[in-house]
Amino acid sequence: RRKSLRSRKANLRWAKERGEGAATSHKLKRDQLRKKKQQRLRREEEESKKWLEHKEFKRAKAHFEKVAKAHFDRREKEGAGKEKEKEKRKEKKEKKQEEKETENEKKQEEK
């Protein structure tokens, strides 16, 4: 198992104090660069993941709005149709009522 960067840094500091390790400072530099690269890659990966999630969310939202609008429009149409049917029914009732009244009047006149 590899030692952590922190412990390696500490070991290098102690080696410097003892007057050793030009090669080890090179290793430390290399490790630091590797760590930076890993951090950069991880950050880029997270950003791309966020971007994909955002795009997916926007797509889903647009789809939902489209479906909701279609549903609403259909309901509106159905509602308008129902209103027309109601009006027709009312008119029929009124006509029947008028016919009954006229028949009643005729009967009254005959009597």
| Order of secondary-structure elements | HH
Radius of gyration: 42 Å
* Poorly predicted ranges: none
Judged by helices, strands and strand pairing, the structural class is mainly alpha
How is this fold's topology laid out?
Blueprint: H1 5-18, H2 22-110
Q: Descriptors for this entry?
A:
rod-shaped, mainly alpha, 111 residues, single chain
Structure, described:
The protein is 93% helix and 0% strand. The chain is rod-shaped, with a radius of gyration of 42 Å. The mean pLDDT is 87. By secondary structure, it is mostly helical. It has two helices and no strands. Helix 1 packs antiparallel against helix 2.
Concise description?
This protein has 111 residues and is an all-alpha fold.
